[in-house]
Predict the 3D structure of the following.
Amino acid sequence: MPEWHTLLLMTQELPLDTVIRHRIRGLRLARGWSLDALAARCYLSPSTLSRIETGHRRIALDQLVPIARALDSTLDQLVESANDEDVVIRPQPEHTPGLTTWILSRERAPHGVSVAKMRITSEQPRAAAQLGVHPGREWFTVLSGTARLQLGERTILLQAGDAAEFSTMVPHAVGAHDGPVEILTILDHDGERAHLHASDGARLP
């Protein structure tokens, strides 16, 4: 497997080499295994395994594969990059008239939830016919400014630090009151379709 040999040679000269050693030791300790116990499972001597964990021995492919198997892991998982791209989300703003949205969750799962930050500048109250209705519940908290929640025939003002949770079977819309407002909202699948995927003309903040 020349591609793995190349990858392992690269990792020997990068901080990832240290990460791999820490992963091996961490997985071993999480299982409550001694060096002897893991060494027996991957057919290495305890001294060899100790030198691998402590960085006193170069990691070879023919050692890493049985170590990964013994730890109920995979070679890919042990050598995956240690950068922050699997953790850090860098949302890009999506603009529609009166609304800017940042999606803060990595994936929009079909049956999961999406987290979004919204900056709403539109202060015009919506007519009853324009209020959104869809299955589920919705939650948001106000980060700054004052939000105007239209919920059926009610109008509720929420200040920074306030939160709202309500059934989305009630006709609803969120707008700004006396200046822009920023909210953090959690949307289920139906709420995401209604608020994030609607056309510009029908999209509801």
